[in-house]
Amino acid sequence: MKKLVTLLSFITVLGLLLSACGGAATQPSAATAAPAGAPVEITFWSWVPHIEDQVAEFNASQTAIKVNYVRPAGGREMYNKLKVALQAHADIPDVVQIEYQLVPSFIAQDALLDLTAYGANDDKDKFVPWTWAQVSQGNAVYAYPQDAGPMVMFCNDDALAKGGVTAPTTWEEFAASAEKLHKANPNAYLSNFTADQGWIFGILWQAGARPFAVDGSNITVNFTSPEATKVAKFWGDLIKSGNLSPVDTYTNDWNTALGNGSIACWPTGAWGTFISSSAPDFKGKMKVYPMPQWTAGGTVNGNYGGSSIAVTKASAHPKEAAAFVRWLNTDPKVTLELTNPDGAGLFPVTQSTLADKSWKDVTYDYWSGQAIHQTMADAAQQVDVNFAWSPLTDFVFQTYTDEITQVVAGTITFEQAFKDLQDKTAAYGKDQGFTITTP
Question: Domain 2-148+304-360, what architecture?
């Protein structure tokens, strides 16, 4: 379940915000001048499995820079250690992995280096446009995209056929198929609902909702738009209908349900191929489908998961750190290597790798002989570029968890949960010194 461990580090909610109005962590970590002729040494923090292979490759490719790789643990522990380092102005890594939803938090802390002076904008067209938007504010670029989770739907065609349905292409059809399949077999379900925060934001993303708009210290918070309300009503109604499996994603019960076919489909990020280990008996019966659309024939998508690689403003060697980050995330050979399922296993975000036949055209017996990466590459290009996060992600994710627990328990509606989330986030943002606007 290595992919699941990586995924969970991607979507963990973390205590990151030091203070929106606090001082910038700009004091460099202690650095010792290298002897003449010795390489400049930089430190790189990441949780990606086997990325030390690429670090070794970089170190062997030249003699001017030596990257020292550190894996402080998964996302939660790594972020906690980074927070301590930033507060202490000591032992701050030169290069660090940061999930997209948390990049604005670090920008608000003035902890990340603007990479435009080191040629970052020259690389903009090498990436899928929406991923570049995730690491940019205005003309400033604060990180390089490394991986992503464009949403697709994994389905067990055998389980669907037993319920007399096919993979739904619209959300309206999704609800109807959920009802029909469960009516045919009370122990079978089209899908389940997950309380995971990253998942619901991917669904909001696809629906055209814009929970945040950030302009410096001015933040608009909007969870009551028609688009957000549409999502809330749809999933709220499905939860109340009883036509969704009651098990939550990533649990042992969920693994069992996938393995015995009692859950037929899973709309999720493209990294979700790890479920093949939960349902080995369905080899040749599983396929990857585009996400259901809100409008028939539409091609709009959201994203669930993914991260970037940034240089800290505290780095004593910004030029060298920027050179390594650029190499790691733009060299076509390296970005292709990072997709290797026996290595990092990342979903690519560069146009060159997405189009590389050795990645895109590979077929898999488990996935019914399908070239699943073609479907996923199309999904990546369809992700809406206009979705943005805010520096308030920590609070938003934790508050959503509290609210959705009440929705699942039936004590409040999903629409009320979003209204509560909007109000509580606005109050929190004001307390942190931001200027907050709500509808």
Answer: 3-Layer(aba) Sandwich (3.40)
* β-bridge mates for residue 137, sequence order: 140
349-387 burial code (b ≥16 CB/10 A, e <16)? bbbbbbebeebbeeebebbbebbbbbbbbebbebbbeeb
Q: Using CA atoms, how far apart are residues 9 and 139, in angstroms rounded to an integer?
A: 29
Q: Which helix (H) or strand (E) holds 32?
A: none
The residue type at 24: A
Q: d(Cα 124, Cα 130) in Å, to the nearest integer?
A: 11
> d(Cα 393, Cα 261) in Å, to the nearest integer?
35
User: Tens digits of per-residue pLDDT, 226-276?
Assistant: 999 999 999 999 999 999 999 999 999 999 999 999 999 999 999 999 999
pTM score, whole prediction: 0.91
CATH 3.40.190.10 for domain 151-302+388-437, yes or no, is yes
Read off the tokens for 45.
């923090």
Task: State the span(s) of the chain assigned CATH 3.40.190.10.
Answer: 2-148+304-360, 151-302+388-437
Distance CA 271, CA 4 (A): 9
DSSP reduced 3-state for 303: strand
Reference 229, options 417, 28, 97; nearest CA is: 417
Nearest-angstrom CA–CA distance, 406 and 274: 30
